[in-house]
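Example 3.2
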Amino acid sequence: MTMVNLEERAKILSEALPYILKYKDKIIVIKYGGNAMVDETLKQLVMEDVVMLNSLGMKVVLVHGGGPEISKGLKAIGKETQFINGLRVTDEETIDVVTEVLAGKVNKNLVKQLNLAGGHAVGLSGLDDNLIEASQINKELGFVGKIKAVNTDVILDMLDMGYIPVISTIGSDDKGNIYNINADTAAARIAGELNAEKFIAMTDIKGVLRDKNDPTSLMKTINVSELKQLEMAGIIDGGMIPKVQCCVEAIRRGVNNVVIIDGRVPHSILIEVLTDEGVGTQFK
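Structure, written as tokens:
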């Protein structure tokens, strides 16, 4: 190893120190999904990043979706998937598959991967200790829910014991009905209820681009007051609108630092949390 490499490593470590101190004992909520969840190499890197932050004294909460796995599970039983305005129509048969896949297969696989990476993870769903109280959005969508309340006691207990909570986004009502909850919406709400210091939403794009055809036009910082104008200009549209709305919700609920990052970039979480430049689009 050359002296130059050693100097570069020392510079990286010295740059990271202020952020390690800044986020020590603070809660960071990460919404995990997209390509980083499907690609096994990227998944391993994400797990390593989460364990690294946890080992540095940060309280990391991982909230995940699992749309592709749900679709695969439905296909296996010969059931077609139907969407309305981007939300999966969820009848009784579908919610059984959603529960089995999200709270079972996907959640436990992530717990296993985190533990293999050296962490101490525990799997939770919105059903545990009534973590996510929900109600039906409308009859047309079936068992698709909106969040009424988030009960954070079980999450805080796990964090205090040094665990990494891994949360699947299903919820229930007072009649015992189970609902599929949008993972972005749930993650932002959980971040707010936990008074998280930072909320990271992982996506399959670099962030908000001023010109969608120019990956170098990343907007590194956006003020919430600019959003309407950006939507009218078509800079924020399509699938980015609900993601941005979730970021605004997290800010409205008191999260200090909210950012959308590109989950396709290896170690994007570490770059965002521990470097001066960060990665993605930050909302203020």
